[in-house]
Amino acid sequence: PSSSLEELYLGFNRIKFIPDSMFQRVRNLTHLWLSHNRLSTPLPPGLGQLASLEDLDLGSNYFTGTIPTEVYGLANLRTLLLHDNILTGSLSSAVSQMTNLTILDLDTNYISV
């Protein structure tokens, strides 16, 4: 069952893992803050299920790998903070389709444009 939860703030909690299935239960989220934890997996593709998401802060973790294609499909996203991780690869041209995006912070990663 999906929750009516709209905002979830879990920063500074030393969280190490979030199951991809969690995103199926919180599909109404508009704000998700998971910054300053110890998340060290690739970015979960399940983030793409959060169609209402407007603000996503995953900064200051240890995320690895590339930005999943599903993230570029978040049409309502205004703020995407991925700074201070270990992300690699190229920024997809699909970012230009994120027309509501006003803040994109990829500082201190290994991403090329």
Summarize the structure.
The chain is 7% helix and 22% strand. It is mainly β and 113 residues long. The N and C termini lie far apart (39 Å).
- Shape, principal axes of CA atoms: globular
Output the radius of gyration. Answer: 13 Å
Relative strand content: 15-25%
Order of helices and strands: EHEEEHEEEE
Number of helices: 2
Determine the structural class based on helices, strands and strand pairing: mainly beta
Main β-sheet description: 5 strands, parallel
The side-by-side strand order for the widest beta sheet comes to: 1-2-3-5-7
Distance between the termini: 39 Å
Overall average pLDDT = 96
The tally of beta strands, per DSSP, is 8
**Percentage of helical residues?**
under 10%
Low-confidence stretches: none
Please characterize this protein's 3D structure:
The chain has 113 residues and is mostly beta strands. The protein is 7% helix and 22% strand. It has a 5-stranded parallel sheet with strand order 1-2-3-5-7, with no helix packed on it. The radius of gyration is 13 Å and the shape is globular. The relative contact order is 0.18.
Topology:
Layout: E1 7-9, H1 22-25, E2 31-33, E3 55-57, E4 64-65, H2 69-72, E5 79-81, E6 86-90, E7 103-105, E8 110-112
Parallel strand pairs: 1-2, 2-3, 3-5, 4-6, 5-7, 6-8
